[in-house]
Design brief:
By secondary structure, the protein is α+β, with helices and mostly antiparallel strands. It is built from 6 helices and 5 strands. Strands 1-4-5-2-3 form a 5-stranded mixed sheet.
């Protein structure tokens, strides 16, 4: 049974809750390693990337990941950079308005993909400073992997 996509309100709540204070290179390493560990536990064929202010701080491709996953990460990350929200949030926002991301914004689909899996790195009282992204699973699973590991990271 497929799970329903979260609402825009639920996605906005995630973004309010999953904020960092601060976000260092060491934090990127720890978060990236936690994502890789989670992917290994699930035998997930994913690519993972973390970037802050355009600087790639962590990148990994697990067994089964392909070069296409890196392209998906780039496209989903561009959505986060442009809109300051998760790629799934941007997708769902269009859907809840009765349209699609592609129809609403007319952005080049070779450059932008409003599919789940890229999440803004939000520093409390600062705002978005980067992106954490996963690609290789269905979009909702990509999103949930990022948000669940980010939530665990924040609890530490």
């Amino acid at each position: 049974m497929t799970q329903p996509f979260p609402t825009v309100a639920e996605l906005a709540a995630q973004e309010r809750e999953l904020q960092l204070t601060p976000f260092t290179n060491d934090d990127a390493w720890a978060l990236g390693c936690a994502l890789v560990a989670a992917a290994r536990r699930e035998d997930a064929p994913v690519a993972v990337e973390i970037a802050r202010n355009g600087h790639r701080l962590f990148s990994a491709a697990l067994p089964g990941a392909t070069p296409d996953n890196a392209t998906w990460i780039e496209r989903k990350s561009r959505v986060v950079h442009r809109f300051g929200r998760s790629s799934l949030h941007v997708r769902q926002d269009s859907i809840e308005r009765g349209t699609t991301f592609e129809a609403e914004f007319g952005l080049d689909p070779q450059l932008y993909a409003a599919h789940g899996g890229a999440f803004p790195l939000l520093v409390r009282d600062v705002g978005p400073v980067g992106v954490v992204a996963v690609s290789g699973l269905p979009q909702l699973a990509d999103h949930r992997m990022v948000t669940s590991v980010l939530a665990e990271h924040l609890e530490r």
